Amino acid sequence: MAKEKTIWFCTSCGNESPKWLGRCPACGEWNTMVEQTVATGKPAKTPAPAGHKPQQLRDIGSAQEHRISLNNGEVDRLLGGGLVEGSLVLIGGEPGIGKSTLSLQIPLGCKGLRTLYVSGEESPRQVKMRAERLGGDMDNCLILSETRMETILEAARAEKPGLVIVDSVQTMYSENIDSSAGSVSQIKEVASMLLYFAKSTGIPVILIGHITKDGYIAGPKILEHIVDVVLQFEGDDKGPYRLLRSIKNRFGSTSELAVFEMTGKGLREVTNPSEMLIPMHEENLSGTAIAATLDGLRPFLFEVQALVSTAAYGTAQRSATGFDVRRLNMLLAVLERRAGFKLNTKDVFLNMAGGLRILDPACDLAVVCAVLSSNFDFAIPHDVCFAGEVGLSGEIRPVNQLDRRITEASRLGFRKIYISKYASVPKVEGILIVKVADIPALVKSLFRG
Ligand code: TYD
Ligand code: MG
Question: Quick check: pTM over 0.90?
Fold first, then answer.
């Protein structure tokens, strides 16, 4: 009989320790260790190696992996051009954001792909009701309501489908492990069983995992090392827009972003995100500026909104949604020290349109312009946009892929784009490129020109 012992796991990175620690030595997070009972003495299943002997690199065939199109342009693009045979894909996100909806839409929208959809959360009738709501082709989708991994894999081996979807990793358990479903050791075991299944049969597996609000994850973070691809749902689950981001991809690039709209009939692909992120109003409003940003390789434009008002009580408030508040503070300090704007007695609120979370430094310039526009109550014309990083001495720095950003701005009907003086870009038809060296030059050109 297998012996039992207790191990402490870090829920943030999956690090193991024989005793409790206040701070995980591997990832440095505090209070993340949880106690788990694990059985010892049973060998862990690992993926079968492709060959038993080492091979010469030059002799290994370089044929492209075979990819399966999911008939969903945005998901295919995130995956790097379709689902690779034998791959294990994790879709993570908060409860209620649309993971089950998206994963059920895949077989319904993909006629030729026989899919086994395993749900540990919903009965077959509930899945059917959802499928009816979503519409699509129901001929190729097998539903199994089950949480025992051994039964699931037996069914999958017998049915030999083209794709297996498992919803969700937290509800599944294996008999190899004594702890309850959702514990760290069960999650690891379930994922490695699915990985072994995918690699040994060539059948791709999509695995769904829940993430809690604060990103404190008993699951997906631990699984990131095991799976081939991690797609993560983000965004505001109250609003209609959901963002799916690729965080890890062994077969394609990361930092790609897809935008979906949650409708009454499931998730609709938004192929041109700029359209939803740019305001529809024609008249000019102060406190807004359009940034030309990039996700992965695709440029898109969105609105930055700022509100600057006199602080009611001595200390000014600074708050930012979708933008790093420390970076906002830095930009405000630059405006104060390098361009003489007295903002230390003002409250500043910043918001990125559509619930986006922006990390691209090229948005600095639009943030600065939105703040100044609100401060002066001076509207920036609606056909002007910005792409530039702001440095600590108030200089405006060039950003990557400027030509793509400018071309996209021109395509969307913008007539003027402000960029760094130090960038070299070719002329683009239909749009005036204004080059500015620093904040004072920008203010002169934009607000006093
Ligand atoms: P769901 O896919 O169940 O979320 P998850 O699996 O990530 O927990 O999505 C649930 C939400 O989506 C729920 O609030 C209802 C909404 N929804 C729609 O608006 N339209 C639809 O067609 C469907 C199926 C769900
Ligand atoms: Mg679900």
Answer: no
